[in-house]
Amino acid sequence: MIKAGIIGATGYTGVELLRLLALHPEVELAVVTSRELAGTAVASRYPNLRGHVDLNYSSPDIKALADCDVVFYATPHAVAMNTAAELLATGTRIIDLSADFRIKDIALWERWYKTEHACPKLVEEAVYGLPEVNREAIAGARLIAVPGCYPTAVQLGFLPLLEQGLVDSGRLIADAKSGVSGAGRKAAEAYLLTEATESIKAYGVAGHRHLPEISQGLSRAAGEAVKLTFIPHLTPMIRGILATLYAPVKSGTQVTAARLQSIFEDRYANEPFVDVLPAGELPATRDVKGSNNCEISVAYNEDTDTVIVIAAEDNLVKGASGQAVQNMNIMFGFEERAGLNVVALMP
Amino acid sequence: MIKAGIIGATGYTGVELLRLLALHPEVELAVVTSRELAGTAVASRYPNLRGHVDLNYSSPDIKALADCDVVFYATPHAVAMNTAAELLATGTRIIDLSADFRIKDIALWERWYKTEHACPKLVEEAVYGLPEVNREAIAGARLIAVPGCYPTAVQLGFLPLLEQGLVDSGRLIADAKSGVSGAGRKAAEAYLLTEATESIKAYGVAGHRHLPEISQGLSRAAGEAVKLTFIPHLTPMIRGILATLYAPVKSGTQVTAARLQSIFEDRYANEPFVDVLPAGELPATRDVKGSNNCEISVAYNEDTDTVIVIAAEDNLVKGASGQAVQNMNIMFGFEERAGLNVVALMP
Amino acid sequence: MIKAGIIGATGYTGVELLRLLALHPEVELAVVTSRELAGTAVASRYPNLRGHVDLNYSSPDIKALADCDVVFYATPHAVAMNTAAELLATGTRIIDLSADFRIKDIALWERWYKTEHACPKLVEEAVYGLPEVNREAIAGARLIAVPGCYPTAVQLGFLPLLEQGLVDSGRLIADAKSGVSGAGRKAAEAYLLTEATESIKAYGVAGHRHLPEISQGLSRAAGEAVKLTFIPHLTPMIRGILATLYAPVKSGTQVTAARLQSIFEDRYANEPFVDVLPAGELPATRDVKGSNNCEISVAYNEDTDTVIVIAAEDNLVKGASGQAVQNMNIMFGFEERAGLNVVALMP
Amino acid sequence: MIKAGIIGATGYTGVELLRLLALHPEVELAVVTSRELAGTAVASRYPNLRGHVDLNYSSPDIKALADCDVVFYATPHAVAMNTAAELLATGTRIIDLSADFRIKDIALWERWYKTEHACPKLVEEAVYGLPEVNREAIAGARLIAVPGCYPTAVQLGFLPLLEQGLVDSGRLIADAKSGVSGAGRKAAEAYLLTEATESIKAYGVAGHRHLPEISQGLSRAAGEAVKLTFIPHLTPMIRGILATLYAPVKSGTQVTAARLQSIFEDRYANEPFVDVLPAGELPATRDVKGSNNCEISVAYNEDTDTVIVIAAEDNLVKGASGQAVQNMNIMFGFEERAGLNVVALMP
Q1: Are A179 and A51 found together in one domain?
Q2: I need a surface site. Which of A302, B65, C83, D95 has the fewest CB within 10 A?
Q3: For testing contact with chain A, the best of C192, C195, C289, C346 (most A CBs within 10 A)
Q4: Is residue C133 a part of any domain in this protein?
Q5: What count of other Cβ atoms lies within 10 Å of the Cβ of residue A105?
């Protein structure tokens, strides 16, 4: 049993971490912090935790957190970077669900997040927590930057194509659809039921903060700078991301549906949480609701010589808190599925 | 480990049983039958089970089922009554999620279900599987009739009032709201998304099959014939039942909110799956989505001298498959929470 | 053609007024005010009005408003009471959609709205704008208090029973279900899609501001003080109220379903916007989505000697802005259906 | 006033036609046919029409239909082709909402619809009813093939780019999201609320019947064979199509956002139902719910040299019945907005 703490567990990645950790066989939940809610019961903020989590919120306190083997930051960006170094110095390992340590290019990060980075040194050390790419580095890491929700689905979908050099990396397209929980649990008019249900729309067409993170990962996989058009859409549902990916086949390269299928199956054969569907089947976000799975289909359009990849995940699980727990399992040598052996809720 | 079988697992109570049993620490899933789907993978019917359930459907076969320690019927009504006796004779215990063995008065059952009952003898033997009332009898039962979804919420809400004789049993009202999954997984125009979302309506005003089941249970608790107006409503959501119950205080009886609160808390103090909320808090169906909990609030309207009870459950869990598993746990001496220690999905 | 103004058109009753008035054959939309949005286009706040409404918001200005024949207040409570007298003095007639002039008992209003009333004198003059009760008074009124959304449905449902003295007015029950738009267009966590969809819950069990308004109307109809248990529910949909009403038949009175049906049909025979459904049919809120209709069913439960009335309306139309326009039509002698001849959107 | 008939008005395009025609100032609704529902009231099938449409369904009868000036086919494919010639011969004009007369290449049609075409001669004569392309031909037509829902949005979005020869017509991508009403009002498990809500998925990846229709229209506009990857998605909402379109800029061509914006504004400057949004604004499907508008945004991604067009429409209005009425208005010389001057319902 290890002791775990969570900083800032008042939003949706927080409750999802708590849901998973409360039943995790190797974890004792020791500290849950929130400045505003200090003293109140965690279960009063999240009624689904009644009977499962008995803790009260406490004010963030480095000493109490230092007692934990691992601390999760479930905070907005530009929080973790201010205290991570101090906490690491106590020997506690950190899993940061925010964007603070995801992007290696500090200037790029500062441009997109419109803030000076308080701790560039740790950015260098931080391991990008995508197990399907960095499993070994994760095992030895002190500090994990958990990937964003869109970046997880988009990277898992494009990786096999880029690693094999099959597609033209200059004109990739990711048309992504996300449930409203991606916007967090903050009172904003745009995410009211009355505004967001029974409607779909694109946003961030002029630029979205997940783009540099995705590009960094895809470029690493491709071994060259990748260019991507990334259009996210606000979709009238609570959870789920569906990423529909389009990649033109590289000039002079020949692909077939069968070859693509076996490339994807081989790539993810040993991955516990990536599930390549049988040829011809397509994922729906509901198939992974509440689970840590990413389901992927690949298809080939001969007429336009384009590869289509469709990836579905639960944005709060594989796209955030489940992936954070998966990272923790790897870091501490637990079974990688521990605490994540959940069947998606259907219907 | 016991061996379990499921008959007719093609609908929503079936998939919910499979979700719970697949991860149950004491159960090996041995047989899943469906006449139409025999030979196909269970996980192709229920994609959320990919990686969790590897079985194929088989044709119902008494020999294969007799090999199981327990068999669940997840069939429509008027199926279990035809084969239950034969299966019981092999020593297998039965948990029937359908209505076949719920109502002790055969003539009444036949009137509501418009079918001759094939096995009245077993009706007498069957134990009504509401653990909060019949825990001891369940432990020794060969045959369990799992309560219906509405009857579970309505009975749990009214029981403390009737057992204490506080309310006028001649004019009870149950205004119940159910998600669309209560209608099952059958293609019917009325339950299309386009017909059922963004709208609420009452149905069954002239009479609903759950009424005699509820009346039977309430009358037993009251020790006299209870009269109930029961109006169910189709609510635009997948899961959940909210039962808003109204009971006039018996003439000459004095109640207070505090006394009601403590009556409810005492009644359910040792119940693992009934959660009486603190005074002033109200349940929402989402607080129990995917969990076996029934959350209950009680309030008193002094002006009209009426008690208001509000009970929330997941119709597919405490209202069906979770309760079936709870019954199994009691029958086989497992920890009552085994396999049911699930945190509701939120948001 | 008359000139109309709207004060405070930034929420949902505002946009609904604009939708109806923009196409009204007798109305020219002259002024739309909002302190915060002064100078911006109305259609940028409400994109559905692009091409239909070309006005910009202006700051509230009595002179500009005095130029209008009628001014609608689409403001929160405690706004209209501050300026209505001044505006009336200019000869402009007022239709107030807020609660300021609905309740005749000033002390009662002040208790529920926790504010001192700024203009008790006008409360006396104001006509309660329920055309099915006050049509004649509306025609001559200078100041209309448009009924609340719940009060409209609940009163229309109970009126025939109370007017005929058929039911026990001491223990009426109104179990009402409202879409989320009833909470207005304000950023509040509880009404986020992620919080409000896929769930139903009761609220206001300890008391809701619409209760005194309903009681006032029902008591007037009954000719005696009516006692009502009123439990509203937040329902996962945008629009619509379904009120399920329960009334015990008065001791010594005999009713039949047929008699109830004809009482309701007779009561509303000449009402353009109340539609009593054929016996046995039940309303759904979607049947009135976007229309000014209130659909009503009545049923009788012999076993419990209880009358059940079910009323469906669109809370933003018959429950607010449509009813406001209906009042305007009556006040100015227009055809009562003018601008309200809308077919509900289905599906 | 002209007389109109509708054949097969039992689904969603039928009710939408009736909603629009019932209030159309120039149309008298004379005949509504349905073989199965002959004799029953139209308003019992579509409760939103109570009080607006008093007709009963009748069996299809050429004589009665011949009495109409115009007849709409709201039938599945392969129905209109069997009787259109006979009806045209009586002098009645036809507006077919099905696919029977949309595709000029008979062999192509037969391949996609897996049926022999019963009336190839009329395919030649039929005018494709996209007013933004064929207004003049529509005015003189006897037989209109109303475009499909996806084809309308996708064509309106791509047309300006192709007409100007700005983009590489060999690798266009249309990622389209449709509400569930696109599947019609037929009882099918996949479209149950429990299956379709709270989830998004792609379908028809291997080929969708709307592809040849779209390609035909785009190729005509481009003056060369266009190649398109078309991926539709089932989106958890009732109404609306959002088409997100991606077009690589033709090699050697230079575009800017400003130039694209003015090309789109110029192209649709005189179109009553195509609304090019101001630069930087993006459409949501809810902005056109119930209206005949198609809202379009255009953006340019410099990094990938790709044009992104986003088009939103209501699939049942501009994507079907509204467009049919627009065609009728043009054919009979009515004001083109007659009966279509509807403000979208918001929220």
Answers
A1: no
A2: A302
A3: C192
A4: no
A5: 11
- Whether A269 has its CB under 8 Å from any CB of chain C: the answer is no
pLDDT digits (tens, 9 = 90+) for B315-326: 999 999 999 999
A68-94: average pLDDT: 98
Residues of A carrying an active site annotation: 149
What's the rounded Cα separation, in Å, for the pair D257 and D70?
Answer: 44
Contacts of A287 in chain D (CB under 8 A): 199
Tens-digit pLDDT profile for residues D224-278? 999 999 999 999 999 999 999 999 999 999 999 999 999 999 999 999 999 999 9
Rounded to a whole number, what is the distance in angstroms from the first to the last CA of chain A? 34
Residues A185, C192: C-beta atoms closer than 8 Å: yes
Average pLDDT over residues A204-218: 96
The answer on B160 and B91 residing in a single domain is: no
Q: Which two tokens stand for residue B344?
A: 């509701």
Tell me the one-letter amino acid at A322.
G
- With respect to residue C345, please indicate whether it lies within any of the assigned structural domains: no
pTM score, whole prediction: 0.98
Helical axes C257-267 vs C149-163, angle rounded to 10°:
120
Same domain for B276 and B163, yes or no, is: yes
Please give the average per-residue pLDDT across B287-314, as a whole number.
Answer: 98
Dist CA C256 CA C128 (whole Å): 32
CATH, residue D38:
3.40.50.720
Interface test with A, best of C194, C195, C197 (most A CBs within 10 A): C194
Shared domain for B212 and B266, answered yes or no, is yes
Q: Which residue of D has its CA nearest to C194?
A: D198
Based on the fold, state whether residues A33 and A92 are members of the same structural domain.
Answer: yes
Among chain A residues, the shortest Cα distance to B281 is held by A44
Look at the alpha carbons of C31, C37, C41, C43 in this order and tell me if their dihedral is positive or negative: negative
Report, as an integer, the average pLDDT of D89-106. 98
Strands D241-248 and D172-178: antiparallel
> From the list C181, C189, C194, which residue is nearest A194 (CB)?
C181
Q: B-C interface: how many C-beta pairs under 8 angstroms? A: 148
Interface predicted TM-score (ipTM) over 0.85: yes
Nearest Cβ partner of C52 from D181, D185, D343? D343
* Contact (CB<8Å) D48/C23: no
Tell me how close the Cα of B185 comes to any Cα of chain D, in angstroms: 7
Range of the domain at C27: 2-125
Angstrom distance (rounded) from CA C264 to CA A251: 75
pLDDT band at residue D119, thresholds of 50, 70 and 90?
very high
Per-residue pLDDT of B268-279, as tens digits, reads: 999 999 999 999
Angle at B195 between CA B192 and CA B199, to 5 degrees: 130
The whole-number pLDDT of residue C102 equals: 98
pLDDT band at A298 (very low <50, low <70, confident <90, very high): very high
For C192, nearest residue in chain A (alpha carbons): A192
A78 with A35, same domain: the answer is yes
Stated as kind and residue range, the H or E segment containing B245 is strand B241-248
Q: Is residue C130 part of a domain?
A: no
CB-based contact, D1 to chain C, within 8 Å: no
How many angstroms separate the CA of residue C240 from the nearest CA in chain B? Answer: 7
Is C149 a catalytic site residue? yes
Asked which of A90, A110, A125 is the last residue of a domain, the reply is: A125
The closest CB to that of D185, out of B194, B196, B198, belongs to B194
Nearest Cα to Cα of residue B34 among B5, B3, B9: B9
Banded model confidence at residue B205, pLDDT cuts 50, 70, 90? very high
Task: Residue B171: give its domain's CATH number.
Answer: 3.30.360.10
When divided into structural domains, chain B yields a total of: 2
The two three-digit tokens of residue B302, written as one number: 């002094």
Residue-level pLDDT at D118: 97
Give pLDDT, residue C138. 98
User: Best mutation site among D181, D189, D192, D201 for testing chain A: the one with the most A CBs within 10 Å?
Assistant: D201
3-state DSSP assignment of residue A75: coil
